[in-house]
Amino acid sequence: MERSYLLLTGSLGGLISILAQVVFWSIVATLVPRARASQLAQLEVPEVLLHMMAGIGLGLLFWLSWGLTAIVEVPWEWRGLAFGGLTWLALVTPAIASVALARQLSMPIFVATATRWLATCMIVGLACAWNWQRGL
Fold it and tell me: 103: Cβ–Cβ under 8 A, 6 or more apart, which residues?
């Protein structure tokens, strides 16, 4: 598997993830006017770039792990979900928790940020596993 394809896939996965999150929260804000979802529906360029860079890093990590080939006889979907879940649990959760504690963020903001990063990790994991399975 060529590394450049996984890096590109990771970057696009991060971009798709953040755009899907904004669309989702925009729909929620439209359907439930009093919800705080309007804050989550806003999109800033640094956040988009951050998710794209994280996607590149996750793609590189997927390549370095050889696509989790140690997990045998499972479809690529499960491999991608396992990679996304493990990276979210090991990398993202401690970082978000420490920022939330240091800045005393409210629980809804913490949960919204955590789910945004969970979506990014899962989409990038699935995209990289799909690319790995195709053998590009």
Answer: none
